[in-house]
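Title: Prediction job returns without error message
Component: structure pipeline
Severity: low
Priority: P3
Assignee: unassigned

Description:
Job completed but the reporter wants confirmation the result is attached to the right record. Sequence as submitted:
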Amino acid sequence: MLKKPLILHEGYPFIAGALLIAVILAWAGHIYVAVIPFVLSCYFTFFFRCPDRNNRIPEGEDILVSPSDGTVMAVEKDIQEDTFLGQKCHKITIFLSLFNVHVNRAPMEGRIQYQSYTQGRFLPAYKDTVGFENERGAIGIEGKHRSILVILIAGILARRVVSWKNLGDTVKKGELYGMIKFGSCTEIYIPGDVDICVREGDVLRGGLSVIGRLK
C-alpha cells in the first residue's frame, strides 16, 4: 500500500508558516497575538493527520469500505451515472467537516480506469449542487466483480483536490489515494446488486466502515 507519514507533507507549508508567524510575533513582544497563529499551526497539524489503518481494513472481495471519514449526508438509489459507469447506481454522499481526517481511501481493490479533474466553484459542501458546480476530482475503479466511481468534491474553504494515484494504477482496498484541503464531501456510485450498509446520519471512518456488500 501507499505509505504516508502521520502528518501529510501537503500540510507542512501551513504548519510551518503559521508557526513562523507566531515566533516572529512573540519575538517582537506580541505574546497574546502570537497565540492565534500558534493555535492555527496546531490545527493544521491536526487537519493533515494521516492515521495508520492498513492492518484493520475489513477483508472480503464483496465488502466495500468507506472512502473517507465523515457523516453520511444521503443514500440514494437509481441515480444515473454516465461519466464512467453508464448505468443507474446506488449513491452515497459523505460530508467531511473541518475536524475529520481528510485523506481518501479506495473502497475496493482494482485498477483506476477513469480519472478526471474539474475546476469549479466553492459552494458549501452540504449544498445539493456541489457535485455539479464545485471543484472535484473523480476516479473510476474497475474491480474483479464490479466497477465503482468515487468523486472528491471541494467545499467552501477547499481550494485543491490532491491525488497520489494516476490512470492505470492499481489500488488495494483501503489504500490512500488522495485528499481535499479544508472541508469537502465524497460521493461514491455503486452499480448493480448491492446491500447498502449505511444510512443518513451514520458516522464513518475511511477504510474501516463497511458501506456495502456486493452480491
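Comment from assignee: result matches the submitted record. The radius of gyration is 18 Å.
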